[in-house]
Every structure is written in C-alpha cells, then in structure tokens.
Amino acid sequence: MAVKKTTKKVAQTVITEDKFYTISAANGKVVEVADYNTDNGAKIQLWDNAGAEWQQWSFVRAGEGVYRVKNRFTGKMMDLDCSGVTDGTRVHQWEGANASSQLWVVDPLNDGRCKIKSNLAGKCLDVVGMSTENGAPLQIWSDVNGDNQLWAIEEVTRKPKTSAKAQAAKAKAELEAAADSLTEAAKAAAQAAPVQETAPAVSAPAAAADSVEEPAKKPARRGCKPKAAAAKKPAAKKAATAAAETAPAKKAPAKRTAKKAAKTEA
C-alpha cells in the first residue's frame, strides 16, 4: 500500500495596518525596544514575551511589500543606525521620517516564517552573534538563511500590558517633546517676524538737552523777524538821546524872544 506524502502548509500572517504584531525569533523571544525607552536611537533587542506594548509592532505600508515597522508603545520606527548598509549595522528606533533606512521588505517562507530585509541595504534583520539571550541586540547581515534571520510575525489578540513605570516614562517623554516643539515654534516665529526699525536709544541727559533746545528749533511765526526785540534797545536809546538834544535847542529861542519883548516895552 502506497503512503501518500503530505506537506504541511503553514498559513502566512496577513499584515494589515490597523493591527499590531509580535516579531518572534526561532527561540520564541520577541523583538522589543529596550527598557521601553522612547528616545531616538534606543536599542532594539530580543526579550521574553511579556505581552507588553513595547514588544508589539505595526506595519505601515510604504509600497508593494514594503513597510515601516512602528513600535506600539514609543510610536517610533525600526531604523538603521546612520543609514548604514554594511554587515553589522545596528538596528535601533527613530522617529518617523521619509528615509530609506526605515523601509523593510517582508519576504515570506513556506514554513510560516519570513525574512525581514532592509529595502536600503538588501540585508536581513539578524540577531548579533546568533545569541538566544535576553538583551541580544539586532543588526543587519547578508542573507545566510540562518535561524537568527528567520522571524514569525503573529497578530496580537490580547490587550497589551503596560506598567505604571513605563507609562510615567512615556508621559515624561511626551511632555519634554511638547516643550521642545514649542521652543522650536517660538524660534521659528521670531525668525519669521519682520524686523522693525527702531530709533536709537537716547540717554536721559541727552533727551533733556533736546527738550531744552526744542523751542529754538521751532519755525518763527509768519511775519516775525528774528532778533527784533534785541534791535529795539539801541533804537530806544537813540530816540531818547535825540529828544534830550532837541529839547534844550527849543528852549533857547523862547528865552531870547522873552528878553527881546521886555526891551521893546521899556
């Protein structure tokens, strides 16, 4: 009796943008952002699956089979350090940007797993040193078809766990980011504002001197001749002198006329 051979097919996970997924290594550990760190450049590593938000990812479509891989907790993207393309370039998280260092291709295999390749470098997401320990960092490496380059993408169906400590750290980071954003906006507004010309500063003594000299700067009224008052004083003196000289001259003829009249009568 012939035995019919059957090949077990493992269904591939259908990736949709509105869902979250874990990315599991061959040993069951999952890809996470180390210490729920929300900073740019935070390490991406392997750790035991605790059902935490920083261990879950969404795949944001950027083209046919090309995605940006976004962490659920931090909101930042899986990214190549310094946009490196060589073997050993570390993988970290960075804020979303229109950068090819954040583009990844999901290449499915027949066993339900996949390879996740950098669209920029063409190399595989890889566990450094083929480590299976918690905290093992991730990198890119040429495709060697090893277990440390094979990943299972599984949809998250349970509510994620988030510690109070992680939430506090996230809230603090968001406040700091908002403050930085306001500062940058204020700087941009200050640079964009039109420059207003201002009068040069005047010291108090100079301002007082200007106020004293101000009447001299005013135009004379129409019909007024400058320095007219000063000219009147010499004229008055001349008139008085002339009058004084004229008065005695007039009195002399009067006396002579009176004497003449007296002689005539005698």
Order of helices and strands: EEEEEEEEEEEEHHH
Report the C-alpha radius of gyration, rounded: 50 Å
Strand content: 15-25%
Average pLDDT over all residues: 80
Q: CATH topology of the domain at 21-169, anyone?
A: Trefoil (Acidic Fibroblast Growth Factor, subunit A)
- The CATH architecture classification of the domain at 21-169 is Trefoil
CATH class bucket of the domain at 21-169: Mainly Beta
Q: What structural class do helix, strand and pairing data support?
A: alpha+beta
Residue runs with pLDDT of under 50 for 5 or more positions: 5-9, 205-209, 211-216, 218-224, 226-233
Q: What's the arrangement of strands in the largest beta sheet? A: 4-5-8-9
Overall geometry? globular
User: Count the helices. How many?
Assistant: 3
Largest sheet features: 4 strands, antiparallel
> Roughly what percent helix?
25-40%
Beta-strand segment tally: 12
- Span from first to last CA? 202 Å
What is the topological layout?
Blueprint: E1 21-24, E2 30-33, E3 44-47, E4 57-63, E5 66-71, E6 77-80, E7 91-94, E8 104-108, E9 114-118, E10 124-127, E11 138-141, E12 152-155, H1 164-192, H2 204-217, H3 228-265
Antiparallel strand pairs: 1-12, 2-3, 4-5, 5-8, 6-7, 8-9, 10-11
Characterise this structure.
The protein has 266 residues and is of the alpha+beta class. The chain has a domain of 149 residues: Trefoil (Acidic Fibroblast Growth Factor, subunit A), CATH 2.80.10. It has three helices and twelve strands, in the order ββββββββββββααα. The strands form five sheets. The protein has a four-stranded antiparallel sheet, with no helix packed on it. Strands 1-12 form a two-stranded antiparallel ribbon. Strands 2-3 form a two-stranded antiparallel sheet. Strand 4 and strand 5 form a beta hairpin. About 12% of the residues have low confidence.
